[in-house]
Design brief:
about 60% helix, four-stranded antiparallel beta sheet, alpha+beta, about 180 residues, 5 helices
Length: about 180
């Protein structure tokens, strides 16, 4: 039973890391990245479809992204959705492809983005701590039901804490990398 609880905790903590990383990837850092379009959809034959599923997206240069729709009639729709988004990027449409020129970030915007990624990281850490609390509650319930001893409880809680510390450190590492990426000029 202990292994099952620890395994489930590890799996859920890993999911928290992945969610945090995904949130980080959608933040514009002054570099072109396909993940900037991860949350943008178009109406593709009556179906809400991610832009990346309706077009080929490439990054030929560090600050340029090129979007080539599989069907040219969706150029206008893709352009409209990019303009409506909160990316703050003005697309240029030449009739065949859409080019996104990613402007460099000013100092104020960089600091704002650093605050945002710190908040996202803290949300990830809180999620991991909540998983720790739930696991510890399960172990306490097992001890109250007489399934494990007090010594077992202390040992299991120690293992959960080590797992928690490991995953929080992982979030700190990806936060540090993202901050560094944002602050690059």
């Amino acid at each position: 039973m202990k292994d099952k609880i620890l395994m489930e905790s590890r799996k859920r903590m890993q999911q928290s890391i992945e969610n945090t990383q995904h949130e980080f990837n959608t933040i514009r850092t002054g570099r072109a990245s396909v993940s900037l379009l991860d949350n943008l959809y178009i109406d593709y034959y009556g179906t809400r479809t991610l832009i990346k599923h309706a077009a080929n997206i490439s990054v030929p240069e560090a600050r340029i992204m090129v979007i080539s729709p599989y069907e040219p009639k969706f150029l206008k729709e893709i352009e409209t959705q990019i303009r409506k988004s909160d990316l703050g990027i003005n697309p240029t449409n030449d009739g065949k492809v859409i080019r996104l020129s990613i402007p460099p970030l000013n100092e104020e915007r960089r600091k704002e983005l650093v605050r945002l990624v710190k908040k996202i990281a803290e949300d990830g850490r809180v999620s991991i701590r909540n998983i720790r609390r739930e696991s510890n509650d399960e172990f306490k319930k097992m001890e109250n039901d007489g399934e494990i001893t007090k010594d077992d409880l202390a040992e299991f809680q120690k293992e959960v804490q080590e797992l928690t510390d490991d995953f929080i450190e992982r979030i700190n590492v990806i936060l540090e990398q993202k901050e560094k990426e944002i602050m690059e000029v």
